[in-house]
Specification:
The structure holds 2 protein chains of 2 kinds. Chain A is mainly α. Chain A is built from 13 helices and 7 strands. In chain A, helix 7 packs antiparallel against helix 8. The longest helix of chain A is centred in the first third of the chain and has 34 residues. The two termini of chain A are about 30 Å apart. By secondary structure, chain B is mostly helical. Chain B starts with a helix and ends in a 5-residue tail after the last helix. The chains are: A mainly alpha, B mainly alpha. At the A-B interface, helix 2, helix 4, helix 5, helix 12 and helix 13 of A face helix 3, helix 11, helix 12, helix 15 and helix 17 of B.
Chain lengths: ~400, ~425
Amino acid sequence: MSTLADPPSESFRLSMLLNDTRYRSLTFQFIALMLLVAAIAYLGSNLVSNLRAAGLNISFDFLRDPAGYDINQRPIEYTSQSTHLRASIVGILNTLIVAFLACITATLFGVLAGVLRLSNNWIIARLMSVYVEAFRNVPVLIWIIIIFSIMTVSLPGPREFRGENPTASMAFFESVAFTNRGVFIPGPNFTNPLFASAGLNWLLVLAVLVASWFGARMLAKWATDRHEATGIRPTTWYYSLAIWVVPVAALLSLMGLTWEYPELRGFNFQGGIQIRGSLIALWFALAIYTGAFIAENVRAGIQAIPKGQTEAAASLGLRPNRIMSLVVLPQALRVIIPPLISQYLNITKNSSLAIAVGYMDVTGTLGGITLNQTGRAIEAILLLMLFYLVISLSISAVMNVYNNAVKLKER
Amino acid sequence: MSDTPAQSVAFVRETQIPPSPPPASESGALKWARDNLFSTPLNGIMTIVALFLIWRLLDFAVPWIANGVWNSDSLAGCREALDGAVGACFSVLTERWNQLLFGFKYPSELYWRPSLAFILLFVAAAPVLFSMLPRRLLYFTGIYPFLAYWLIWGGTILIPIVALLGFVVGYFVFRSLEAKSFAGAMGGAVVGAIATWWIGGFVSEAAASVLAFEPVASRDLGGFMLNMILGTVCVSLSLPLGIVLALGRQSDLPIIKFICVIFIEFVRGVPLITLLFVANVVLAYFLPPGTNFDLILRVIIMITMFSAAYIAEVIRGGLAALPRGQYEAADSLGLDYPQAMRLIILPQALKISIPGIVNVAVGLFKDTTLVSVISMFDLVGMIRGPILASTEWNGVYWELFSFAALLFFVVCYGISQYSQWLERQLQTDHR
C-alpha cells in the first residue's frame, strides 16, 4: 500500500539476529551450516587419524588388482585372474539380471492377484487375500531362505537321475532337470553364427525384434487411419503376426538355431543353461513378496476409478472390454504406475539380500569378497552405495518424467 | 345372480396360500454357490482349480502338523518316532524355544527380565495406541524406555534414572523459558539435560552397585528379542527424527532444506544392507580412536536413520496434503512457526500420515531380520547359525522357518489391523 510510509530504518543491533524475523532465518541457517561443517570436520579428522593409525589410505587402486576368487554365475567372461573391477561389473550384471527377472515376474503375480482379489468368485478372492496378507507380513529374507531351502534340500541330487531305476527324472519331455544344484534347461545354440561373439548374435535378434515392433506399430497406425477414414477397421491380426514371426524365424534359421539339451555327464548335468538355486530363490522370493505389494497397488488403482466412469462408458454404448481398455485402465494406470515403479526400486534394493543365499550380485562381490580380501571397507562400500544411488536416482527420474506426462492437465 | 356370488361359485378360498419356498436353485447354499462360485464357466473352472490346490495343500499340511513330534531330543529321534510317516519335528521348538526367543547367550535364569519388559511394553504402548485409556498411563510410557533398558541390560538402576532425570530437567528448563523464546528454551533444555547427565555420570559411576541387576552385554542379546528391541527402539526414535526431517524439507530456509533433501534422498537410495555394512565395518573409522561402540548401538543408529528418511517422506506427503488455508490461518492467528506447527499443522498432517507411518514401521520391523547378514543372532540368525548348524537339528528347515514366519506374521498383521482400526477412529469427515 502506497499510503503507508516505509518504517524508519533502524540501525542494526545484535539482538535482531534472534528476534527479527528478517535476520533470524539467516541465523538459523548459519548455525545449521556451522554444525554440519563441524560434524564433517570432526568425522573427517577421526577418519584421518584412524587411517593413519591403521597405516591405510583411501585409494581405489585395488580395483585393478587380480580378484583371485571365482564367481559361479558369469554373464560376461570372468576368471579368478580378472580384476576386482571386472568382478564388480559381473556382480552389477548379476544384480541387474535378478532385478529384471523379478520385476517382470512380480508384475505378473501382482496384476493377476490384484485383479483376482476383486473377482466376484468368493473363493478366489479369499485365496488372493490370504496370499497378499501372508506374503506382505513376513520378512522377504525368510522367504528367500525358505525357497532356497526348497531348491537345495528338497530337490533330488544329480546322482538320483542315474541308473536303471532312477528315483528322479527330467521334466517336460526329458528337457528340464530340477536338481539341488539348480535347474537345467535347454540352451539355444547357433550352428553358423553371423558374428563370432554370441552377444552380438543375440543383439542382432533383438534388433530384428525391435524392427518388428516398429513395423507392427506402423501397421496399427495405418489400420487406425483407415478406420477413421472409412469407418471399417481392416483385419490385420495375421499381418501383424507375420511381421512379428517371419523376420525373426528367418534370421534364426539362417543362423542355424539348435537347442542344446542338458545331459547327465559325470557327477552333474552338462550342456544347456544352468539356473542356480540361489538365483531362483532370490528371483521367486522377490517376485512373490513384491507381487503381494503390487497386488494391493493394482487393487487400489482399479478401485480408485469411480463407478460413474464405467456407467458413463456403458451408456455411451461401449462394450465391456472396450470400457476396460479405453476408460478404466488409462485412469487406473495413472494411480498404479508410480507405486509400481517404486516397487521395482524396492526389488532392486532388496536384491542385495542375495548375500544371504550366496548369489554373487554386486553386494556379494564388491561388498562381500572384494571387501574382505582387500580390507578396503570405505572404498568398497562407497562404490556400492554409489551404484545403488545411481540406479535409484535414474528410476526416480524416469518416474518423474512419467508423472509429468500423465498428470491431469488442469488449467 | 350377481348379488349372491357365494352361492353361484363352487369354491371360494378364504385364507391366503402360504408362500411356497423359493426353488432350490434360488435359495440357500446352492444359490450362494451359483452366484459366488460358478457364475460363469471361467469362474467355475477357477473355483475347481482353487479347491484342488487347497485340497492338495491341506492333504500335505494336515498330517504334517497332526503327526508332529513334540518331545524328542534330536532330528534322528523325530524320524524314529515318526517311523516313516509324514510329520513335523516340532521338538526343535520345545527344545530350543529359549534360543529362538532370547538368543543363545542370554543367561537362562534371567529370562524373566526381558519377558517382563515385553509384557510391560504392552502396558506402555496401550495409552499411545488407544486414546480412551486414562491419560495418566502416559507417565508410565515415559518411564518405560528406561525401565526396559534396566531390565534387559541390567546394571545399576542409577544409569537409567540419571538418563531420565536429564530429560526431566530439560523439560522443566524448556517450560520455564518457553514463554520468552522457543529457540532459547530448546537450547536451555539441551544444556540442562547435558549438565544433568554429566553430573549424574559421576554419581552412577561412584555407586555402581545400587539396586544393580546382573549386567548382560549387548552381544549376548539375540533371538526374537533382538528383533523386538531393534523394531521398537528404531521406530520410536525415527518418528521424531522423521518429523524434523520432513519439516526441514518443507522449510523456506534453503540451506536446511538442502541438507534434509540430500540426507533423505541418499538414505532412501541405498539398500538397508549397505547401511548395516557401514555400521559393521565403516562406522568405526569415523569415531574417535579408541572408542568401542556397541555393534547393537551402531546398528540402531543406522536403522533409525534409514527409517527416519522413509517416515520423513510419508510425513511430507501429509504436510503437502494439508490445504494451504491451514498454514495461512495459523499465520493470521499470529502464531509463530513452532506454535503453528505444533498446534495446527502437525496434528492434522500426522493424522493423514498414519497409514504410511504404520507401513514404514511394519517394513522396518521385517527389515530387522537383515541384521543376521552382519552376523548378529536375531531370530533368523539363530535359526541359520547355531540351531541349523547343531548336530541334533541339522535339517529341520520347515518347522523353524514356519515358526519364524508365524511370529512375524502375527506381529505385522496385528499392527496393520490396528492401523486400519485407527484410521476408522480418526475419520472426522462426514461420509
